[in-house]
Design brief:
This protein is an alpha+beta fold. The chain contains two helices and seven strands, in the order βββαββββα. Strand 1 and strand 2 form a beta hairpin.
Length: 149
Amino acid sequence: MIVTCTAPWLSADLGAEHEILSWAPHRGGLIRAREILWRAVRDTDLPPDLDVTSWLTAELRARDAEQALCFLTSRDVSAHHHARAGVEGLAVEALATAGLSNAEAVGTRLHPAERFGTINIAVQIHAALTLPARIEALSIATEARTAAV
């Protein structure tokens, strides 16, 4: 994974096209892509009447990156975290942005005027996984994110 940060963008080049499973706002689901992007946004970037999907598509088109998977984050992308680990010959990389101002939790709602943050994590596992194994990996990354918060 080659990480490049030029605010308001953070990019992870995976080195080749990979199958990706995510719930990202741009190209979420089960897709094939070589690049994962984060687009930093502020409250003023996303007024209530904005068609965010069209806006984000136009932003990606301007970068010639419409085929990338793309997250939106309220975090300063220069404060990203990239880590690599290996166990028994299996390498894994993670790239994350963590804006911890979001105190939303299951079963609670904040007042709409409160500020929200995001935590977005991309995990690249350097091994071929079946779809059920990818779903399990996504679940484990989500659980780890929750435990860290």
